Each structure stands twice: as structure tokens, then as C-alpha cells.
């Protein structure tokens, strides 16, 4: 829900901020793992929405699943094409 609200209310700023996450260097397991860990630990909703969009685009088949601790836990999947789209 946070992602939708930020896109709706701050579309241009949000899209500009997502550019950091959608470059060839971000299509790597280590980048994904670090940001998955950060996503599970931070409380800032804006940053969480940015990272969620990245995780959702690069996780296996765009799934969204959380474990019993409430942590996002979908494995990484490398894509040939960039996955940046809303």
C-alpha cells in the first residue's frame, strides 16, 4: 500500500529516486541481498517503497512473500532486460 501511495502522491520524485535501483550493476545477487536485508530492517516508508519496487522487479517471478518473522524472503532472479516499470 505504501508503494501505491508514494507513486500516486509523489510520482515524479519517486520515479527519479528509483533510477538508482535500475542500472546494470543492480542486477546482481549481492546488491539484491544487501537491499533485501535493508528492506527488512528499515522503518522509513518512502525508502521501503523504493526498495520494495526494486525487490519485486528482481525477485523470482515478481512474487511477494514474507516469512514468519515478517521478512521479505523471495530469492533473486537475474534478468537479461531491465525490469524498471510501474
TrEMBL record:
Reaction(s) the record says it catalyses: a 2'-deoxyadenosine in DNA + S-adenosyl-L-methionine = an N(6)-methyl-2'-deoxyadenosine in DNA + S-adenosyl-L-homocysteine + H(+)
Question: One biological-process term from Gene Ontology?
Answer: DNA restriction-modification system
Q: What is its EC number?
A: 2.1.1.72
The keyword Zinc-finger is annotated on this UniProt entry: no
Q: Which EC class is this protein assigned?
A: transferase
Q: Which Pfam families match?
A: MethyltransfD12
What SUPFAM superfamilies does this protein's entry cite?
Answer: S-adenosyl-L-methionine-dependent methyltransferases
Which GO molecular function annotations are given, in alphabetical order? site-specific DNA-methyltransferase (adenine-specific) activity
Q: Which UniProt keywords apply?
A: Methyltransferase, S-adenosyl-L-methionine, Transferase
Entries under InterPro entries matching the protein: Ade_MeTrfase_dom_2, MeTrfase_D12, SAM-dependent_MTases_sf
Per the record, the similarity remark reads:
Belongs to the N(4)/N(6)-methyltransferase family.
The protein here is known as site-specific DNA-methyltransferase (adenine-specific)
Amino acid at each position: 500500500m505504501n508503494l501505491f501511495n508514494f507513486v500516486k502522491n509523489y510520482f515524479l520524485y519517486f520515479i527519479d529516486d528509483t533510477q538508482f535501483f535500475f542500472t546494470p550493476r543492480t542486477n546482481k545477487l549481492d546488491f539484491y541481498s544487501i537491499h533485501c536485508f535493508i528492506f527488512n530492517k528499515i522503518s522509513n516508508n518512502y525508502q521501503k517503497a523504493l526498495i520494495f519496487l526494486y525487490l519485486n522487479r528482481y525477485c523470482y517471478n515478481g512474487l511477494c512473500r514474507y516469512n514468519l518473522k515478517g521478512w521479505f524472503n523471495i530469492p533473486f532472479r537475474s534478468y537479461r532486460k531491465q525490469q524498471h516499470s510501474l
